[in-house]
């Protein structure tokens, strides 16, 4: 969760906003220019939040990983109705999804698709967990 928060904070709240402010200072002469710069800003935010059809698969993997985290948390909060087997299953499912997510993002970064994903990749593998 912190990885996603950090990525969105860096790539959307800071980078896109800085680019928007720079565009407003240097590329605006009338109201139409302001409108265009704002539309570009919104487009970049949507792209970097993985809300485009091309990024849907990556977003779905992230959402699936978050669902596993929530399920695991719920299982821990209700220990009487939860077995070790179900905890292990949730953990293994999360591990499978997160490993696949890592491999997918590595491939996208290698191909140059959405360069900002490199920031997400660095955050995801900060401690070298996924490197084999």
Automatic annotation (TrEMBL):
Limits of the Gamma tubulin complex component C-terminal domain: 1-130
GO molecular function: gamma-tubulin binding; microtubule minus-end binding
Keyword Cytoplasm: yes
InterPro entries assigned to the protein according to its UniProt record, in alphabetical order: GCP, GCP_C, GCP_C_sf
One GO CC annotation: spindle pole
The keyword Cytoplasm is assigned to this record: yes
Record key words, sorted: Cytoplasm, Cytoskeleton, Microtubule
GO biological process, one term: cytoplasmic microtubule organization
Name assigned to this protein: Gamma-tubulin complex component
Lineage: Eukaryota, Metazoa, Chordata, Tunicata, Ascidiacea
């Amino acid at each position: 969760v912190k990885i996603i928060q950090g990525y969105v904070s860096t790539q959307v709240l800071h980078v896109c906003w800085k680019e928007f402010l720079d565009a407003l200072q240097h590329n605006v002469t009338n109201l139409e220019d302001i409108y265009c710069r704002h539309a570009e800003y919104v487009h970049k935010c949507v792209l970097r939040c993985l809300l485009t059809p091309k990024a849907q698969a990556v977003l779905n993997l992230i959402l699936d990983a978050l669902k596993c985290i929530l399920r695991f948390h719920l299982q821990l909060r209700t220990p009487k109705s939860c077995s070790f087997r179900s905890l292990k299953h949730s953990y293994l499912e999360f591990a499978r999804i997160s490993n696949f997510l890592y491999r997918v993002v590595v491939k996208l970064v290698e191909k140059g698709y959405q360069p900002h994903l490199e920031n997400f990749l660095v955050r995801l593998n900060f401690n070298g967990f996924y490197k084999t």
